[in-house]
Structure formats: C-alpha cells, structure tokens
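The protein record passed on for reference:
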Amino acid sequence: MKKCLYIYILLSITFFTCKTKASLENEIKASSISLEKPNILIIHVDDLGFHDLSLNGSQIYHTPNIDALAKQSVVFNNAYANYPRCVPSRYAMMTGNYPVQNGDVPDDGFEMNNVSDSKNFVKNIKTAGYQTAYFGKWHLGDEQSVKDFGYDLSFAAGHAGSPISFLYPFNEKKGKGKNKKSPVPDVDEVSQEGDYLMDVMTDNVAKYITNADKSKPFMAMFSFYAVHQPLEAKEDDIKRNKEDIKNFDFGNQPDFINEGTGRTKMRQDHPKYAAMVETMDENVGKLLHLLKDLNIEDNTIVIFSSDHGGLSNDGTKQRDLATSNYPLRAGKGWLYDGGIKVPLFVKWNGKVQPRTDNKSLVMLMDVFPTILDITSNKSLGTNGKSFLPVLQNEVVWNDRTVFWHSSKARPVNTGDTKSSAIRKGDYKLINWYKEGRSELYNIVKDPSESNNLTSEEKELTEQLLEELNAWKSNF
C-alpha cells in the first residue's frame, strides 16, 4: 500500500512539474512575442491646428500632457496632412496614398471598400501577429466597414463626421435647429447623465488596452471626435477659460482679416474651444499614465497627430470659428500651411532618441507604411513611405517633393476655392487652377506665406507648375 502511495505521489509531482514547466514556457513564449513586436497606440485628433498646442506657441490653450509626450518623442515640425478636410485626409492616412481617385477626391458619404487585401495596411499588420482596434471618428463608411477594413474591434466608429453632442445623451442635439448628422454608435449605451464624450471614449480605449490579449501585441487607433464642432465643453472649464481669455492682452492683433470669400480668425479667444483642447490633453494624459501603470510604456509606440489644420475660416456664410492658426496662414479647407501643417510625433522608448526634426518633410500617408515596416519589414508600394530611417536618424527628408489637390472647395463654409499645390524642398507653389493664378512661397524663410515670389522667381514658378500638372495628369 505504501509503495502504491509512493508511486502515486511521484507521478503527481512529475505531472505537476511538467504542467508547470509547459505553462511557464507558454508564458515566456507569450512574453517574448510582446517584447519582439511593440504595441502601437495611434492618437489622432480632429481639427487640431499646429499652433493649438502650448509646445507650439499657444498662450491660451494649456496642453501639459501632450507637451510632455513631445519631449519623449521624435517631433516632426515639418509634417503635413494630405488634405485640409476630414474624409480625404483620413483616406490618405489609412491607405498610404494621395486622396485622389479618377481626378477627384473622396468626400462625405465615401465608403472605404476599394482597397484590396494586398494593399490593406491593417490586414497586413494583423498578419504580422497583431490584434487591432479602432475607436472614434471613422467617417469612411458605416460600422461594418471598419471591421471589413481589418479592425478586430471598433467602438463609436461609423459614418459620423462629428458627434451630435459632446454632452450626454450624445445623439440628441442641444440647442436650436434640426439634427442632420449621423449618430455615433455604441456611446449612449455605456454612458449616463453628466458624462462627457471625450471621457467616455478614453475610458473605453483604456479598457481595451488593459484587457488586451497579452500573448500578442496590439495596434489601437484612437480617433478623437474632438476638437471638431460642436463647440461644447464642461461648464467649469468654460468659466475658467473665459476668465483667462478676458485677462489676456492680444495687443493690436485683429480678431479677423479677410481671406478668400470670407474671414480668417486671428485670435485664439474661444473659451469653449480652449476647454475642449484642454480636456483632450487630459485624456491623452490618462492613456500615457495607463501605459506606465501597466508596465508596457517601453514596449508601446505612441503616435500623435491631427487630421489637418484648425477651423479658423468662414466663407460667404459667417460662422462660429473655433481657433486661429496664426502665424500660419488660413486654416481648415485651405492649402496654405494653416490648413495642412499638423503636429506629428512618435515616442518609442529605447528605440528612437527624442529630438526635434525641423527638416524632414513627412506626411500622414507615411504613418501606416512606417508601422508596417516596424511590424513586418514590409512595403506595399504606396505613395506614402516608411519614415523609420528618419526616426532612427539615419536620413533626413529635406528635399522631398509632395503634392495636394483640393477639388472639394467650400467657398460658403470655409472660404476656399479649388486649388492644387506642390512642395519641393523649401518652396511651395499653390495653383488656383480654375482661376488661372499661382502663388509661390519659401516656406522655411516665410512660414506665414506672406511674400509671394512668383514675380521674382518666374523660372521656378514655371518649373513647379509644370511638375504639379504632370502629377495631376496621372489621375
């Protein structure tokens, strides 16, 4: 009997040891997968201008969390959106291509259903072993199209270009007028009276990151609906910013100047918008602290960007303007730098040295080619290209040539008319092709685009216009 008991105990210990060893090996294997490939968190803000961050000179909006992120990042001060409006800009970012199809650009109502699997960055990143999730503004189709595009999970993503309200209930209009917007899915069901949309969104991103499968890395894209209109904020934040703005000395800076068919706002003096920017910054801070708390900060790449410049212009119809992009010229809708220059920085602890890159010209269409390069050392042959060598300080992209084509002008809402543009090295030429006129600027010496050089640089003007038209002939 004792002999049988001894054999049973011996077998039990052997089985337990083997099982523990196997479990341990699995845990080590899962851990090594995570360590080999970094998690990726993309934070993409809506309508945030380059100068809407205190690190870029705003004296009204306070963004300490984003400023701190920038200090730990490679900051691209020469970064551009591919279009000065939401849908085409997001199309370019998600596909890695210029937002031009058959001579035209995708616009509101566009459905993202024309990208083959072989050219789909998200599906290729999934093949590299990633779990994927999308939160927030999609604006490229319905809820199902987000998953069809390759995201395992989506939350609050669909047709909506902006929420009906940032205040609960989020799909009920506050104030006068009829609602004409698409509802934001998912959000009302997980919220309650008193909730603010940015906070709800961030909480759900945090929940996903916390509960993500630890056996493989994640790529999560958080696309804020803020700081797009409607301009709605928390009352205490509005009150504080009203007082701050009231006490701020704008000197001789005018409130508006004439531009195109309307006006350009020249002061950052909207208390609701200021409050929204600051709440957005607080929520970015929550996610950065979460990465630290979960001990995954060093193994997570954080990419921060905006889809285009801030809303600073109206047209023949005057409207409530959110911000000023000054000293950049104009804003959302325009191919002046106020409409297309965006904040873009990348944090990757231990892999890239934090610094400011003032020379390399990078585009939003380069973001996913870079991610794919990092995750699988692969290229899909798109217009956008991986800026990983720039991140690693191996090359500088200071002589790159890039293009824009803005055929969806809105002279009523944002004052712009149809135009195209080329940037080559230090120079940018904008061509209003229906009006038969061009403007040429040295962006490095004249970032405000106030000194038109077409008369002085006739040969360069002709050369750049020829290159621009040659590019457009490929549509």
